[in-house]
Amino acid sequence: MAILSVRDLLVTSIGLFIVYLPALVVYRLYFSPLSKFPGPKIAAATLWYEYYYDVVKRGRYTWRIKELHKQYYDELYVGPSKRRTEKYEWAVRGFGPLTYTFATIGHELHRQRRGAVAPYFSKALVQQLEPSVQGMVDKLASRLEPFKGSGDVLDLVPVFACMTSDVVCQYAFGAPYGYLDQPEFAPYFHKAVMGASEGSHFLKQFPWLDDVVKLLPPSIVKKMLPHLACLMLLGDMISEKIFTVLANIEEGKKPEGQKSVIYDLITDDNLPPEDKTLPRLVAESVALVSAGSLTVAHTLSCVAFHVINDKTILHKLQQELGSVMTDAEGPVKWNKLEKLPYLTAVITEGLR
Fold it and tell me: pLDDT for 160-219, tens place per residue?
């Protein structure tokens, strides 16, 4: 039996690779289940198309998809369809573990998991958070007081991220993290989540790197990838919160005063045991905290900038708010604020 030399193995490997590449392109263009969808052929042929927009151009693929959606709209929507489609695993891989609701691939499983979480974000339940939100706003106002008239520049994104994180953690676990109490408004949290978000585009293309990072000691990760180390710390903090909730359940203790999302998920008899494991609860919680804090923080920052930057808007908004705050005893309730037309317009424009 002949033994192949290193040179022969190398030549054979290169030859197979040369044959494999065009075969893969032909498969993707003509035989893949996705080949029936309209769009640029280069995007169907190679994932480097997405890499270019997400990694080289730093997260611009979403905007590119929007452009393509306009271009191919008529071909995409040729008639009514009631298909129940499953998510494309590649598309959700960059969002983290496939065990939390947003990244769940199967339609029925996603429907089940979404149904367990969705009620907590109804208007009625969210309004029950008003006392907690008001307490966070009062604490934020007291933290901002020393900056008044100081001339110092303050980045509002991490400031609002601290407040929104404490609010969403209060809702998720029944207790805040206390980011508003930390010096300099815990800027590492915002930087960590934003850094991990940008890094997810790269890990999506090279998923094996995630396993490599997990094998490294935390001390090395902290030096090489400080934002990822902060995110790992967030995961540890969330694990501690979940352990606390589990301990309270064992002792028969229930959340006082308001809902606790994680408590209710653990005690939900409609969810199977595999949806209540610690890794899945941690993944769900990280997604909840990250999405529920930074999205709101960036919106608040955007609105605050445009209101402060335009004196006409600022003056008009102050006048309208002053009309309901003059005779009020204590903070004005939301059911009164939501009836103010100009404030509503400012919020709606900020969301747009």
Answer: 988 998 888 888 888 888 888 888 887 667 777 777 777 777 777 787 777 787 788 877
d(CA 314, CA 305): 10
- Could you identify the residue written with the tokens 């990280």? 286
**Predicted model pTM:** 0.76
What are the backbone angles phi and psi of residue 32, rounded to the nearest 5°? -65, 150
Q: Of 15-19, 101-105, 199-203, 204-208, where does the model show the most confidence?
A: 15-19
Place of tokens 């109490």: 181
Q: Which of the 8 DSSP states describes residue 178?
A: -
Distance from C-alpha of 329 to C-alpha of 327, rounded to nearest angstrom: 7
Query: C-alpha 299: how far from its chain's center?
Result: 14
For helices 187-205 and 278-309, give the axis angle rounded to 10 degrees. Answer: 120
Neighbours of 67 (CB within 10 A): 9
Residues 101/110, Cβ–Cβ less than 8 Å: yes
pLDDT at residue 34 greater than cutoff 50: yes
Categorise residue 58: left if φ over 0, alpha if ψ from -120 to 50, beta otherwise: left
- Kindly indicate the confidence band of residue 139, based on its pLDDT and cuts at 50, 70 and 90: very high
- Rounded Cα gap, residues 184 and 180, in angstroms: 9
170 closest CA partner among 100, 256, 249:
256
CB-hemisphere CA count at 13 Å for 2?
5
